[in-house]
Automatic annotation (TrEMBL):
The lineage of its organism: Bacteria, Bacillati, Bacillota, Bacilli, Bacillales. The keyword Transport applies. InterPro entries: 4Fe4S_Fe-S-bd (IPR017896), 4Fe4S_Fe_S_CS (IPR017900), 7Fe_ferredoxin (IPR000813), RnfB_subfamily (IPR050294). Ferredoxins are iron-sulfur proteins that transfer electrons in a wide variety of metabolic reactions. This is Ferredoxin. GO terms for molecular function: 4 iron, 4 sulfur cluster binding; electron transfer activity; metal ion binding. Its cofactor is [4Fe-4S] cluster; [3Fe-4S] cluster. It comes from the Bacteria. Keywords: 4Fe-4S, Electron transport, Iron, Iron-sulfur, Metal-binding, Transport.
Amino acid sequence: MAFVITSPCEAEKAGECVTVCPVDCIEKGPDQYFINPDLCIDCGACVSVCPVDAIFEEYDLTDEQQPYLEKAEKFFGIL
Ligand code: SF4
């Protein structure tokens, strides 16, 4: 399981999540931040600091948000 950063990040890219992540698994991509799903320990710390509520647990993703998990996996070369 992992948390996933979704569409609101694309317009915001605030980056607060990076500073609170205890395992440093969030990286800045070209158009948004990404959580490495292989390293995320599911602590949820990033969720509350995101100013645009862009971060969701993998299993809570809507159909529209689902592609963002794949986008993160591609970014980290997991797919
Ligand atoms: Fe990092 Fe925790 Fe957020 Fe996963 S849930 S990205 S480990 S802060």
